[in-house]
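With this grant's support, the team has encoded backbone shapes as discrete tokens. A representative record is reproduced below.
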Amino acid sequence: MTIAVHLSESNFRNFLIFNIIKRLKLYKSPVIFASIMSVSAFISFAMHHVEGAVMLGSVLLLVGLGVPVVYFVNFFASLKKQVKLQDLDPPRLVYTIQFSEASDFIEISNDTEQVRYQWKDVYHAYYEKDAIYLFITKDKAFLLPLSLLENCEDAWVIIWGKLGRDRCTRKQ
């Protein structure tokens, strides 16, 4: 199976959101921070009869909700900047991937290089709504947009067969 991967801005944006929010779960810290600060604020509001409690509650609530809002605004601004830096409008050929059931290798090539990876060394594969994300290492992934695959299921069957249940995740 040979796949010439033409990435678009939306493919890349969806991948970044998947990787940062769903796979790495980097949203947890700001949400936990907001929860702790909000609970503290509500405790302060409940003690409204104590001098300064309402003011403290207001500050805690403002900081508790403000910091995560700033975090997510910066995240999406950075995401937009990263997508623009890739120059994917219009979509362009980024790399070509070759693999088959009979081979123990994945071959990936672009304009300047060609590399081979053994299936046994592949970190993980994710089948999402619009692409298959093939992580060669924990931090290096290749995107296979489903719109470019003639038969998505055939590609996934090969990947699943090579990686097995422990290294494959399919969105239900």
Helices lie at 9-23, 28-46, 53-85, 152-163. The chain has a mean pLDDT of 94. The first helix runs from residue 9 to 23. The CA atoms of residues 80 and 172 lie 28 Å apart.
